[in-house]
Amino acid sequence: xxxxxxxxxxxxxxxxxxxxxxxxxxxxxxxxxxxxxxxxxxxxxxxxxxxxxxxxxxxxxxxxxxxxxxxxxxxxxxxxxxxxxxxxxxxxxxxxxxxxxxxxxxxxxxxxxxxxxxxxxxxxxxxxxxxxxxxxxxxxxxxxxxxxxxxxxxxxxxxxxxxxxxxxxxxxxxxxxxxxxxxxxxxxxxxxxxxxxxxxxxxxxxxxxxxxxxxxxxxxxxxxxxxxxxxxxxxxxxxxxxxxxxxxxxxxxxxxxxxxxxxxxxxxxxxxxxxxxxxxxxxxxxxxxxxxxxxxxxxxxxxxxxxxxxxxxxxxxxxxxxxxxxxxxxxxxxxxxxxxxxxxxxxxxxxxxxxxxxxxxxxxxxxxxxxxxxx
Length: 375
Prior knowledge:
By secondary structure, this protein is an alpha+beta fold.
């Protein structure tokens, strides 16, 4: 079933919002203001989902997608928009989430980072179809869309031949590209160095090829500098690095002269953090269960939670420690906004919120908020 619909504003998740009579339709493949033929792909009680099948009146920022599978693959949401339009869309999403969920009027703009729109992604998880071909899954589907001949446009030159050697139908192949190496991991066979070696602001890190690390080449340094600029750490201060992973921010705080305790649920990540940053202390435990073990007072806190956010109990525990500054690193603007509302209840407010386009061509955004006590 198709409809000719006028597309409205952008919504979180890579959608624009339209109305089919009185019902809301979340649409992929369109830009605000366009008139488009929309195929209704899912019916729901409160809203429908749809996708653009023909653009009747294009927006000024529309371009021809550079990847031939852009309309099928679930990885890239905005390949049909030029860079400035992508930044506009992401800025609008961050502003809307902050306004709606935290009551914050944000007048910032999502910032582009060096490297452009392609060739930036250093971590990939390829699906393998029934014929052994590498690909990605379609949006909201388990269907595997095989890679085009040119490979993945946003990938940072992965070793496709080696990845195909270990590909087995129905399995996945994880590829990680470090500062000085590339790794392909198949169902049973690894190729190249594992862990992968990274270097950020003069410090070396090891991280498993299937472990957590920022996927954009520029992300670790960009986010670390934003955290340091916002916290302005002073020698001798105490700091918590919560959801610390393999120690990226802990290393930067140690190098700034801080006494650092990191907390992370993944035991393998903590083992690597201890080797990466031997000057810091680390605890391997789910943060929600370790809150009672946190110091009673601390000068600085870095929060880098998973996509769901930190939550009210973690926010209360952080505020109870009385830090003079908190750096909140967020990969989801709605989770950030919810947690900023919790911080407001504890007397903390953001002095700055920055958004970074560390996932070009996609709907994802990374933000860094700096919070300080009010009054």
